[in-house]
Design goal:
By secondary structure, the protein is an alpha+beta fold. Among the domains are: 28-127, Zinc/RING finger domain, C3HC4 (zinc finger) (Herpes Virus-1), CATH 3.30.40; 145-221, no CATH class; 388-533 and 601-631, Alpha-Beta Complex (Hect, E3 ligase catalytic domain fold), CATH 3.90.1750.10; 640-742, 2-Layer Sandwich (Hect, E3 ligase catalytic fold). Helix 14 packs antiparallel against helix 16 (493-506) and helix 23 (616-622) packs across helix 24. The protein contains 28 helices and 20 strands. It has a 4-stranded mixed β-sheet. The chain starts with 27 loop residues before the first helix and ends in a 5-residue tail after the last helix. Strand 5 and strand 6 (126-127) form a beta hairpin. Residues 15-132 form the PHD-type domain. It is found in: Nucleus. Pathway: Protein modification; protein ubiquitination. InterPro entries: EPHD, HECT_dom, Hect_E3_ubiquitin_ligase, PHD-type_Zinc_Finger, PHD_PHF7/G2E3-like, PHF7/G2E3_ePHD, Znf_FYVE_PHD, Znf_PHD.
Length: 747
């Protein structure tokens, strides 16, 4: 009988045979999975079932076979039994060409043999060998031989059934068989062009040309415990003399018997006690890595002088060993000593800290200002942080529960904040969980500083964060990224910076508020998941190169730029042959990833380790949106409201002062409305020396006081604006405009 079926039932099939094609072949790659329904003694190939013209999936996935009902399969077998295959000339041809005028029918295996096209999408169409879709090659494209980008065997650059061309890459050719095997392995979520990684356009064309892409996860993702070995950590003490009585493999976390792995190779370990390590944060190198480092010679072309190490004259030993640099390229943004401070910072550090507090308490009464606002805050920045950082404050309060009553005293020189802070944080008895007590050693009359220990601590952290913002550890105008400073890396300063920021947050200090979005994302989500932007490049030469590549309008100009930047691209590992203008975007992306992320891998990891202090980084990763609002830089437009909130009014008993206070408020409003020759930025600079509000506010806090003088006076050291008391608003406005306009701008 034809296909093993009787004339009476048309369905008397032995289970090894597919009821639709009559073959015993069990080749899932070619015909799909072969499945048998034991109850009805029914066997089918999955692809034969999908491509049959007269059957639809009307059941659920667990009904019948693959969701096709048994009754429907019987009807389709009976229908096909009347149709003769145009290829093998036997009955049972269940598949027909969808071309309206074509009457050809065939079995699925016969169609494969005759190079028919079966589309595994939408309504599962089938095309015979005459009406099947084909890929067309433009006449101007060269013909010859190329490599299949999967198996690397040679293929003819002529589209055919066996050879397919990529729709997204000009010179990408594939064997159909190679593509089909890859699609079955990768699944719909990972199947993409092997050259450019395009997914949407590539999959659409491959489905049109008959490649079956199953809706499943990749095979390597489905394998149980496929990456189990990656989760195993080396746990063995390799020092010559192990002191642990329990054995070299014993590991007890948070104790002296915790095993610390080599910071370089990770394949050697030691108990903390066996190598006299004081804490798990202390770095350790195995003997093999020490020998390699000793033979490697110089780490960088130019050594940078750092006072951080040379000024530690008290003989204390740093608890953290110094990690060596990983790369030889010097960051252009890190030139100069780490401790070199900007003029603005120097002014704030050298100001007379006692001057403001010498004012009697009665002169520090806050006045109500109408119509702008009745209740003042210290600054718009602080007000914004209170609004956005409520969640962060709650989280930090939970972390602060780790801080105990035991105090650690730090002697701080405000004029050399970094060296004294580093010395204090590295002293042997310092612990992040102790309450920090600050004593400023450079104030002539310490009692006049004095309020509470909390205010001293807050002032210390404020000065420290300001210094970090302007240090060579970070680069960028406002939103900061990490630099590559080899001396700082060697001295472990990136770790110390992260540690200081974490301690500042938990102990009630200000947040840094100068992180770029890219830096924050690298810390929270990992550098491998971050795509940097051109704005993250602080190096002018690199930025200019990226711009020239990005905005090249012809292939010749693109190649010229690449040739001019040959050494830079080669050193960055981004040098590649370019055959089309559209490839410039991939090149730009490679440069940005190298310069902004890969180049600073070592500083970033060291900085991350520092932020783990007191569990801060873990909370950042748990609540990224909350911490982003207090750690990342935000641009704020100056307004009359902003400036008015920024300055605290110092009141006296002079009755004329009340009217002048209204003049001050009205003047800010006129300036904001453009009714003055000066700007709000000019006013801010006149009083403080800065054209914008720093991310952490001003120290000391900006103030306004009124005096019987003819013209306003700005004291940039004290951030104090002294205004004239006048009888009319016109006199006040003229005096302000004249003085501020005539004051030289500080560039």
């Amino acid at each position: 009988e034809e296909l093993g079926m009787s004339k009476d039932s048309n369905f008397d099939i032995q289970s090894p045979f597919c009821v639709l094609c009559g073959r015993m072949d069990d080749c899932p790659e070619k015909y799909g999975e072969k499945r048998t329904n034991g109850t009805y003694n029914l066997t089918v190939h999955y692809y034969c079932l999908l491509m049959s013209s007269g059957i639809w999936q009307r059941g659920k996935e667990d009904e019948g076979l693959y969701g096709f009902l048994i009754a429907d399969i019987r009807k389709e077998v009976n229908r096909a039994a009347k149709l003769k295959c145009n290829i093998c000339k036997k009955k049972g041809a269940s598949i027909g060409c969808v071309y309206s005028k074509c009457k050809r029918s065939y079995h699925y295996p016969c169609g494969i043999q005759r190079e028919c096209i079966f589309q595994f999408m939408e309504d599962f169409r089938s095309y015979c060998w005459e009406h099947k879709p084909v890929q067309k090659l433009p006449d101007e494209e060269p013909r010859g031989t190329s490599q299949c980008t999967i198996c690397l065997d040679l293929v003819e650059q002529i589209p055919s059934y066996a050879v397919l061309k990529s729709p997204c890459c000009k010179n990408a050719w594939f064997h159909r068989e190679c593509l089909q095997y890859q699609a079955l392995s990768a699944g719909i979520y990972f199947f993409r062009c092997t050259v450019c990684n395009d997914q949407a356009k590539f999959q659409k064309e491959m489905l049109r040309m008959g490649i079956h892409i199953p809706e499943k996860d990749a095979s390597w993702e489905l394998e149980e415990n496929a990456y189990q070995e990656l989760l195993q950590c080396y746990q063995h003490c390799d020092v010559k003399r192990c002191l642990c009585r329990t054995g070299r493999d014993y590991n007890e976390p948070d104790s002296k018997w915790e095993i610390k792995r080599c910071q370089y190779c990770g394949s050697r370990g030691t108990h903390l006690a066996c190598s006299s390590l004081k804490s798990w944060e202390q770095n350790w190198k195995c003997i093999e890595c020490k020998n390699i480092l000793a033979k490697s010679g110089k780490y960088s072309r130019k050594k940078k002088h750092s006072l951080a190490a040379s000024e530690m004259t008290d003989g204390t030993t740093c608890l953290l060993e110094e990690p060596s640099p990983k790369c030889l390229r010097q960051s252009p943004g890190s030139q100069g000593s780490f401790l070199a401070q900007s003029p603005k910072i120097m002014c704030q550090n050298n100001l007379s800290s006692c001057s403001y507090l010498e004012l009697p308490a009665s002169n520090r009464v806050m006045m109500s200002l109408s119509p702008l606002k009745s209740r003042r805050s210290n600054s718009t920045r602080k007000k914004y942080l209170r609004k956005e950082g409520t969640g962060a404050l709650k989280i930090l309060k939970e972390l602060k529960q780790q801080v105990n009553a035991k105090t650690t005293r730090l002697n701080i020189n405000a004029e050399n904040i970094w060296s004294s802070a580093l010395k204090g944080f590295r002293q042997r008895n310092f612990s992040p969980t102790n309450t920090i007590e600050i004593k400023f050693t450079n104030c002539k009359d310490e009692s006049k500083l004095g309020t509470s220990a909390a205010s001293q601590r807050k002032r210390f952290f404020h000065l420290l964060m300001l210094h970090l913002q302007n240090s060579s550890l970070f680069e960028g105008s406002s939103a900061k990224n990490l630099t590559l400073d080899f001396q700082a890396l060697k001295d472990n300063l990136y770790f110390e910076a992260g540690k200081m920021i974490a301690i500042s947050l938990v102990h009630g200090g200000p947040p840094p508020a100068f992180f770029s979005k890219t830096l924050f994302s690298c810390l929270v989500y990992g550098p491998e998941n971050v795509k940097p932007a051109l704005e993250d490049v602080a190096d002018i030469d690199v930025a200019e190169t990226v711009k020239m590549i990005k905005y090249a309008n012809s292939l010749s100009s693109l190649k010229s730029t690449i040739n001019n930047s040959y050494e830079f691209l080669a050193a960055a590992g981004c040098l590649r042959p370019v055959t089309a203008l559209r490839e410039k975007n991939m090149l730009v992306n490679d440069i940005l990833i190298h310069h902004v992320i890969k180049r600073i891998t070592s500083p970033l990891e060291s900085f991350r380790q520092g932020l783990k202090t007191l569990g801060v980084l873990e909370k950042m990763q748990m609540y990224p949106h909350v911490f982003s609002s207090i750690l990342c830089y935000k641009t704020e437009q100056l307004s009359a409201q902003t400036v008015c909130d920024l300055f605290k009014i110092h009141s006296t008993s002079d009755v004329n002062e009340v009217g002048t206070t209204d003049f001050w408020v009205n003047y800010l409003q006129d300036v904001d409305n453009g009714e003055s020759v000066v700007t709000l930025e000019d006013i801010l600079c006149f009083a403080t020396g800065s054209y914008s509000v720093p991310s952490m506010g001003f120290v000391p806090e900006p103030t306004v006081k009124f005096s019987h003088i003819s013209y306003p006076v700005g004291n940039k050291f004290l951030n104090c604006l002294e205004l004239p008391i006048t009888s009319t608003y016109e006199q006040f406005k003229n005096a302000m405009d004249f003085t501020i306009k005539k004051t030289p701008r500080v560039e």
